[in-house]
Amino acid sequence: MANAPWANTGYGVQGKHLVPRLQKMGHQVAYFSFYGLAGGMLNLNGTPIYPMGNVMWGEDILQAHMQHFRADILITLMDVWVTDFFGKMAADGGWKWLPWTPIDQEPVPDAALERLVGAHTVLPYARWGEEQLRAAGVTNVRYIPHGVNTAVYAPLSAEQKRAARLEIGLPADAFVVGMVAANKGYPSRKCFPEQLLAFKAFQTAHPEAVMYLHTLRSEAQGGIDFATLLRRIGLVEGKDVWFTDQYSYMMGLPETTMAQMYNTFDVLSAASMGEGFGIPIVEAQACGVPVVTANNSAMPELTGSGVVVDHQHPYWTPLGAWAYLPDPQAITWAYEEIWNRRRTFPERLTNEARDFALAFDWDAVMKTHWEPMLNELEG
Is the pTM of this model over 0.90? Predict the structure, then answer.
């Protein structure tokens, strides 16, 4: 149960890669697209794709889908706190529920803990999430990270990188700070204001620097008003800051194009309020790009090449738990550090990033995590 496998969202891409690998292991798998399909079933290369119902998270039709497919287990790829009580549904329906879910605040919010009751095995994406769940008294926990297609997300040659920059309109010789993050909700969980402030200060010392934002420019999903924010900070779109073509962003870019985009970056800026995993952090490093992250939630354990920003301020969320706002001055220092490393040992930086990311290659994740867990469950 996830976003549709043709949806180029984080959850959609994970589902697209996971399902055929589960099938290759010998399991019969159907896909419940609670986002991305409505009005009828599809069959995609032999995989039944079940549609959403009338309720946003599928509670009204989930039990019927499970009965129709005669499913033994349900793997959900979503935040659990938004759902109804799937544990009770599982008990009523006679199947097992495995929530593959993010934990990105501390302590684990009560709304999440309440909805995890009745789960067979809780599958957090990060060791940090596993620790938070165990600290909250949840014992049926097993860490399974997200996977990355490292055959596609890989470093390009200098000539290819230059061509990729020219293709999307970036100056060939600029120092590019990139962000790949959803402009959704307020305040900005991805911390666009803090990182743009940090970039403005960095650009004062390095006028050749530009920022590229792979995100929704509008406030359509309740996010940042970029036009006002850029004006207040003193950044000019098309000169200091670039956005992904908005139609292409909304339609979704293929992985090959995303990999080219990452390769145009000198650093990925991903210092957010909290991450259950943070797929772009690993995708960027698979392309040999170092990252700037914040010292909270899953981010430190995903930073193999880059800088973890330590200075941050606690923020009390509506879920009744703590997230953290990174300090813009500390982020500016982190950009400066990456700039210096790029000048002194660029090849080592690229190799460190790539080598670290290979641990999250899909084949490695399946062999190390999914296969043993499902074999035990089957037994």
Answer: yes
